[in-house]
Amino acid sequence: MVEHIYAGPTGSFVPKSFSASIEPLTQLGFIVIQIDGMGTNHRSRAFHDIAWKNLRDAGFPDRILWHKAASAKYLWYDISNVGIFGASAGGQNAVSALLFHPDFYKVAVANSGCYDNRLDKIW
């Protein structure tokens, strides 16, 4: 299992159909999951309040519960080695997954992560 993450609070990111951007991973046999994070559009005020000045959270407790529920429902859904990758805020999220949830996420790839929110988009 590989989670493609971008949990920024400014939009919804889960595609409504298969995306060619993940095709190389699926051809290698990975199952790629994408879950909108807490604070994304179309969520309640409570979700936005959690994300406010707290992008490192990225809704990981909910994401982990989602993975566990999926693995309970589908026997082929193996959560013993979950990886995660993302770019920009998703890169920050991927690193946060390993730092704050190493018991669940085993590997991360971060591309162009914005690790200091004080400097992100200062222009």
UniProtKB/TrEMBL annotation:
Residues 17-120 form the Peptidase S9 prolyl oligopeptidase catalytic domain. The keyword Hydrolase applies. Keywords: Hydrolase. It is an enzyme of class 3 (hydrolase). Gene3D superfamilies: alpha/beta hydrolase. It holds the Pfam family Peptidase_S9. SUPFAM superfamilies: alpha/beta-Hydrolases. InterPro entries: AB_hydrolase_fold (IPR029058), Peptidase_S9_cat (IPR001375), Serine_Prot_S9B/DPPIV (IPR050278). The keyword Isomerase does not apply. GO terms for molecular function: serine-type peptidase activity. One of its GO terms (biological process) is proteolysis. Its EC number is 3.4.14.12. It comes from the Bacteria. PANTHER family: BLR1971 PROTEIN (PTHR11731:SF118), PROTEASE FAMILY S9B,C DIPEPTIDYL-PEPTIDASE IV-RELATED (PTHR11731). This is Prolyl tripeptidyl peptidase. It comes from Bradyrhizobium ivorense.
